[in-house]
Amino acid sequence: MMQQPAEADALFDAARRRVKRRERLTPWLMMAPALAIIIVFFGLPTLYMARMSFNLHPDQRLYVPGFTLEHYLSLLTDPLFTGALWTTIKLAFVSSIFTVLIGYAFALLVWLQPAKWRFAFIALALCPLLISEISIIFGWWMFFPKNGLLSYALLSTGVIEDKISLMYTEFAAFVGLIYVTLPFCFFILLSIFDGIDKRMLEASADLGAAPFRTAWEVLLPLTRTGILVAFAQSFIWSMGTYATPSALGPDTLWTVGYMIQEQMLGKHNWPKAAAFSMVLAVGVAIVMMFIRSLMWKRTSFHA
Amino acid sequence: MARETKGLISGISRRRLIKSAAGVAAALGAPAIIGRAPISSARADFAGENLIVVSWSGNHELSFRAAVVEPFNEKYGTKVETVGGWDQMVSQIVAAPADNPPFDITIADEYTSSAGFAEKLFLKTDRSRIPGFSAVYPWFDEERGPAKEYGVPFGGGSLWMLTAKSAELKPDSWRNFWDAKAQGKITMDAAAFYWDLCIPAILSDRKPGIEEVFETPTEMEPLFLELEKLKMAKWYKDGAELTNLMLQDEAEVATMYSADAYGFIKEHGEEFEAAIPKEGTASYTNWFLKVRGTRHADLADLFMAYLLEKETQQRFLDVSTDFMSRNDLTPPAHWANYPRSEETIRQTFKLFSIDGWSKFGPNWDALDARMKQTIAKTTQG
């Protein structure tokens, strides 16, 4: 017995709706585990921190539940905080640029090497990741002072005539930060390079392009996303870290991370520490969104 | 016989039997808990039980582990552990569930105590269970005020002066910080800056002890101005940095906490000297407090009683530069002029008291901002 056309249409519509519903749900179902992790481990703590930043701190208690904008208002008028914010941004920005430059050169070098050398370089890049940040700081403490390795090396090779100390300088803080973030940048960039067909370099050369032009017009556009991601990674890390700049930099290198620690543990002022942290988190989020917007432009350009 | 026994048991109700057994167990255990127990019964009560005790990090923790925790475990068969801490204990307790704190007993100076009391984090101590109290200097209770109901006073720490022998300055007077030979070679604590302010306060005749530090920021201005006459090699942020600065010849004259001084001098005594200057010094006391919610309250009591035993205190004093709370100890070989009387304790140690913190605390942000100006003016590092 044949179905009536209207009945068949209804069945077809129902099937189509099911498919569409499944299409709508599938991405959410696939994202669900990651989303759950993000909400539980990042979303809720951030919400808790945001709520904490509005609590009161009237006495020696860590906080008293309530609502005040006092901590945010004090940030606007506190020259120490605005100074620390500026210092943190400068440190993070400059160190991230150098990290990306060095990481790019290193990743390019490794990408162009034959396989036998490649593994040696990758092992070398992994080394800093196997050591804790504190141990790395102790290493720099042996390297930079006037009785340190660097001073002795320069003295014994005749480059300098008297011992020098680069310890507790902004240079030392930059070097320390770059050393910590470099491996992350390197691996991000190497993964991008690995996705490029090396024959494109040969094709560019065959068409008469000089190496610099090949790098500028072929390699750079193809690795642009990687550069942005590597910069973002380095910038976020540098904005949040406080141990390295605090231990290697000069006395007056007060970063936001240092001030958060000072408020949280030293002064036992959780709401103000949370307000500092929220400003830092929002600042980093804005930078991330800006970097993402640059990536979208690239994608739409290629589309 | 079996029938007789059966009849006897059937004549006693089960509830009564359990009550009696519990009573016997408590009677056997009680002496152990109050610290006068035969060791064998205390061992039976607490063998294998865990207890987490916080002491100051670094050298203090090493000494505390060797002189207190390990002998205690050996004596009672317990599993007491020590973990290091400085300023995070109150935050850690508040952040943890109220019935499951991250540790059972914590060391606390006046600042940590004040914050902990404000949050109601500590439990009162039944002093009748701790016989060692009878030998404690009354100074500890007097300075503590009503807070003395909580915990036991193990001893106290203080600010020491440390000099490199190459500096040609002895650690015998705070005035040496202002000596021309010291300029450019000094290091002091940038983080706990209130101890730095105590030095010009001790040298000042305006008020006794360190009373100037508990005034308003305006009244404290002369202390900052005194510090600004110094030329610092670097302001250190923790003990590790201080050690590095001294060993790398970046600094030669420093303030150092007694918690670290013993270990440092033991390791590097050939090149450095450390002492409490003749003017006396700023100090804090080390009370051990039982944390609310602890699941090992009885073992905690036993441990706190152990802290006030003469042998325990002597053992710790022999490997430390902290002063102890008992009045009957023998000065250690490394500390010839160890204060031996109540009077000397009062003269030597100017306590940054709980009352002092209640005055300093509200001005902290303003004073911290002022101190950062001083750091910026005086630093070379």
Structure in words:
The complex is a heterodimer of chains A (303) and B (381). Chain A has helices spanning 5-52, 70-77, 79-112, 115-126, 133-143, 149-156, 170-194, 199-206, 211-240, 243-248, 256-266, 270-302. Chain A is an all-alpha fold and 303 residues long. Chain A has a single domain, classed as MetI-like fold, CATH 1.10.3720. By secondary structure, chain B is an alpha/beta fold. Chain B has 2 domains: 39-156 and 284-348, D-Maltodextrin-Binding Protein, domain 2 (3-Layer(aba) Sandwich); 157-282 and 354-378, Periplasmic binding protein-like II (D-Maltodextrin-Binding Protein, domain 2), CATH 3.40.190. Chain B has 16 helices and 12 strands.
Topology at a glance:
The complex is a heterodimer of chains A (about 300) and B (about 375).
Chain A: H1 5-52, H2 70-77, H3 79-112, H4 115-126, H5 133-143, H6 149-156, H7 170-194, H8 199-206, H9 211-240, H10 243-248, H11 256-266, H12 270-302
Helix pairs in contact in A: 1-12, 3-7, 3-9, 7-9, 8-9, 9-12, 11-12
Chain B: H1 2-11, H2 14-33, H3 39-46, E1 50-56, H4 59-76, E2 79-85, H5 89-95, E3 105-108, H6 110-118, E4 122-123, H7 138-144, E5 152-164, E6 186-189, H8 194-203, H9 217-227, E7 232-236, H10 239-247, E8 253-257, H11 258-268, E9 272-275, E10 281-291, H12 297-307, H13 310-317, E11 323-324, H14 342-348, E12 349-351, H15 354-360, H16 364-378
Parallel strand pairs in B: 1-2, 1-3, 6-7, 6-8, 10-12
Antiparallel strand pairs in B: 3-10, 4-10, 5-8, 5-9, 5-10, 5-11
Helix pairs in contact in B: 2-3, 4-13, 8-9, 9-16
Computed structural class of chain B: alpha/beta
Shape assignment of chain A? flat
Order of helices and strands of chain B: HHHEHEHEHEHEEHHEHEHEEHHEHEHH
Shape of chain B: globular
User: What's the architecture of the largest domain in chain B, going by CATH?
Assistant: 3-Layer(aba) Sandwich
Mean pLDDT reading of chain A: 91
How much of the sequence lies in strands of chain B comes to: 15-25%
Indicate the CATH class of chain A: Mainly Alpha
Number of domains of chain A: 1
Largest sheet of chain B: 12 strands, mixed
Assembly state (oligomeric): heterodimer
Q: Give me the CATH superfamily of chain A.
A: MetI-like
At the fourth CATH level, what is the homologous superfamily of the largest domain in chain B?
Periplasmic binding protein-like II
Largest contact between chains: A-B, 28 and 36 residues
